[in-house]
Specification:
It contains eleven helices and ten strands. The protein is an alpha/beta fold. It is globular, with a radius of gyration of 20 Å. The structure holds flavin-adenine dinucleotide.
Length: about 325
Amino acid sequence: MATEKPTVGSLLLERQAAGRAGFSIEVLPPPRGKGPSRLRADMERMAKLGPLFVNITTHHSEPVFEQQPDGSLRKLFVRKRPGTVAVAAAIQQRYGIPTVPHIICNGFSREETEYVLIDLNFLGLRDLFLLRGDADKETLVPAHASHAHASDLIAQVNEFNAGRLLGAQAMEPPEQPFSFGVAGYPEKHAEAPNEDEDLRWLKRKVDLGAEYVITQLFYDNARFYRFRDRAVAAGINVPIVPGLKPLGRKAHLTVLPRVFGTVLPSELVERVEAADEADVRKVGAEWLLRQAEDLAANGAPCVHFYTLGAVDVVCQTVEELRRGGKL
Ligand code: FAD
């Protein structure tokens, strides 16, 4: 019998009970065609800081157009960042930090998902993050019988944990059942008609077994606290981990609201507008530190950092939080 490893959910509960925040990071697998050296170098730095866990994103295939000798274009579907399972296994093995591969519905058939679960079970990775995935329906690999929502994917994982494969075929249940977290949206998911409806679906994911929630990025902590209060009032009693990403360029003033539906506080906008482009990263880093300090002081069990293009800033922020005794 394998030794029981604590789940990410239980680590977060411990932190919550102790009233002492930790931090976690999210990394992307390297782009297709790139080797592991860059990610390895980034992980060497970040692992030394002692994250509670590391999330690894998953990416669906996207259409690319390849020019043919006769000038016509051929449409291919290519996964720009393959390798989630291997990256998760390599990080867990090398650093002994719990790794959390993301599994998404969009662009993956139920059968492909089952094969991923079988691989992860063999590798002894037990923490998952279950998502629907972002995609235009037109850009998805066609004809895939994907799950429509994260809750449907959760149902498949629960079946697997109970020793049932697709088609009700019996299997030896995993020695350590998968445990999982799910996504939440302090500023509402873009497609949800209103906050109550969005929370209703979040609660459904928690009722189906999600042990914790990690949120979409936001820049106004008041919005996070309001979301957390509403979630608790709706009966969502698992740890809620705020997700943070530093603003790094002036263009983010329009990109972040458009892509993530986030509202940027006036003070942050004014400071970014007043800065030269070269100084925007500094403004973003200061804001990140301020947000993280405040969240750690106000009951967040963990602060989750999106590290894409921001490894330097995230490392500095964690070091500063440690120096200040905030983590
Ligand atoms: P769902 O929970 O399915 O919710 C999607 C929408 O449908 C919401 O509006 C919700 O209110 C509603 N809803 C939920 N359940 C139901 C239901 N059963 N019936 C009807 N309506 C329902 N994307 C990636 O592609 N790869 C990643 O690795 C990735 N990582 C992420 C990590 C974090 C921490 C976060 C916050 C997001 C991440 N995303 C990632 C983006 C995510 O996939 C998108 O935000 C996606 O649009 C929604 O995913 P979800 O799991 O929240 O979906």
